Structure formats: structure tokens, C-alpha cells
Amino acid sequence: MTNKLMKEHISFSELKQWKDCSWRHKLLYIDRLQTFEESPHLHYGTIIHDACEHFLKTKELKIDEAKSKIKEAWEEHGFDSDDFITLQTNRAQLQGWKYKHNKTKDWLDWAETSLRSMPDFLDQTFENWEFVSAEDELYEMISDQFDTKFKGFIDCIIKIPQKNGKYKYWILDWKTSSGRGWSIQKQRDFNIQAQVILYKYFWGTKKQIDMKDIQCGFVLLKKVKTLGKSCQLIKVSSGPKSIEKTQKMIRSMLKTVNKGLFLKNRDSCMFCEFKNTEFCN
Questions:
Q1: What angle do CA 134, 131, 139 make, to 5 degrees?
Q2: Count of CB atoms situated within 10 Å of the CB of 37
Q3: Could you tell me the pLDDT band of residue 3, with boundaries at 50, 70 and 90?
């Protein structure tokens, strides 16, 4: 089937945008409206992800380097400037929520706490874990029905030796979060869980590993300043029914986009950059 997206691949980010609001997906991925703005959350997440990747590959924590990168990014983009704070405050008010600003020192403290907590967390949660891969690239055919491939990068793959001589594999995705972590509703949201389920399916299929030998989940790196309270494992159920549900989600997206069906989801408006603009009013 020819895909009207005119793309060779889709990512989970694109799939989730479509699931949340297919009209916003159209604006972003078909009309290609540019909405990117520098965000402290994006820079912080990227820096922490890079530090985690380096640790997995080398067992070396580069905390000072991560903090230096944060300082440089905050200075370069003026994330503590009055102009930035005013812009974010006004945007939040327009969208119906309240902006709370955090100074550079908060981000530095959160980064140090998260990175210092991670080694002990991994050792305690995944006993005798062994490194398999970090930022493992996926570029896999979705099915014979579509020409489009699924593209993704898996943050962390580790394996744990079992008594029978085999290994239990873990597909993990790092997520920086608020100090409260995720609500129960967010933890149970299948539209979020689908990311690591898809990673498990496509990676396991590529490596010809039995799905029963692969587990998956998210590791929250919470913005707290107390050592040892930063990391939390969110396990995700990923049996045959869950895997089929994610495949159905992808098929539904490609079919509806090919048909030119783009509906607005009014429940996803609050943080949308297109809210109250000429593109969605």
C-alpha cells in the first residue's frame, strides 16, 4: 500500500502524535509546519540521555561534563532571562495552565542526583546485569501490507543471566520527569506504553529472540535533590495481546492517513502549540 505520508518510515513519536490528535499530526508531519522552539526540558533530557548512554558503555559517570553542558545550554538560549520567563508565562496563560520557572541551579542539582543514583539503581533492580546496547537503532519493515518502516532508537538494552543458562533481556527507555514521577493514569496509558512494546517487538524480531525472554519498561529519572530517590522502574506488560494492539495502532494510523482522515481531539488542546492559532481555532 502506498503511504500518503510520502515517507519511508515512521517513528513512535509520530505515531503518538497521530494517536493524541490526528489533526495536529497533519499540521506537523504532512503540512510540515515548523513549531520547534528551544526548551530547557528538551536540552536537559538530551544531556541526561547522553550521560546515561556513556555510563552504560563505559561504566564511567561524567557528571561534571553533563552539568557543564547544562550551564552552556542555559546561557546560550537564555533560559533564565526575563524575556524567556515572560514568553513562557504568557503562553501558559493563553493555553490555560500556570508556568513555574526553575533556575539553572535546580537543573544542575537534579542532573547530579539522577546520574549519581543510576548505577546503584541498576545494580539493585537488575541483579548481575550485563550491557547489550545503548541507542540501538531500529529500521524495520512494519508488514508486507505497507512500504513504510518503523524507525527508532532504544535507549538501553541489558541482559540478566538465568539459572537455565539463558538470558532475560530488558528493553528500557529513560524518561526525565517531575519530582512526583508519573501519575497512575500515565503509567497505565497504553499510548505511552506502546513505545517500549514496539521496541521489544521489532528488536526481538530482528534478533530472533523469543518474546517471552524480553521484558520492557521505562526508567524515570525524577527531578529531585535527594540521592537514591531519583530512579524508578515502570514495568510494562508486553504479552501477545499488547504486541498485537500496537501493531493494530500502526495499521490504523497508516490506513486513516492514506484516506485523508484528520480529526481534532479536543482533549489534547491544553499544551498544543496550535491552540488558538489560525491553524486550529
A1: 35
A2: 11
A3: very low
